[in-house]
Design brief:
- This protein has no helices and eleven strands.
- The chain is mostly beta strands.
- Strands 2, 4, 5, 6, 9, 10 and 11 form a seven-stranded mixed beta sheet that branches.
- The chain is globular.
């Protein structure tokens, strides 16, 4: 099983990017998938989630209204469309599968799996 993130890059504040999370070796439609981000020296932040079971999604407050998560199970890919990017969005972005829930769930202690290598997003003028 492998997740591969792509689509990151260097952009200016206000620009947009679309990240992709391509999965192989599993049936993507069986899992809730989350995007996370991490800045060196800081903890991992949960950014967004797309459910396997009912199509529901959620977003962290700091990206609400700017980011949109979507999934194409036929292509085994989850996307994160990022708009109105800010310097504070600079981070390495990762996707992972929630191994315990098919519906997006916010709670501590969830087991995540199939982490990819991440894709760097840098927002700078």
């Amino acid at each position: 099983v492998q997740f591969v993130e792509s689509g990151g890059g260097l952009v200016r504040p206000g620009d947009s990017l679309r990240l992709s999370c391509a999965a192989s070796g599993l049936t993507l439609g069986d899992y809730a998938i989350k995007w996370f981000r991490q800045v060196p020296g800081k903890g991992r932040e949960e950014v967004s989630c797309t459910s396997a079971s009912d199509g529901s999604t959620y977003y962290a407050e700091f990206v609400e209204g700017r980011f949109t998560i979507s999934r194409d199970n036929a292509k085994s890919t989850v996307y994160l469309q990022m708009s109105s990017l800010k310097s504070e969005d600079t981070a390495v972005y990762y996707c992972a599968a929630d191994l315990e829930h098919r519906r997006c769930t916010r709670m501590p202690g969830i087991t995540y799996g199939y982490w990819g290598q991440g894709t760097q997003v840098t927002v700078s003028s």
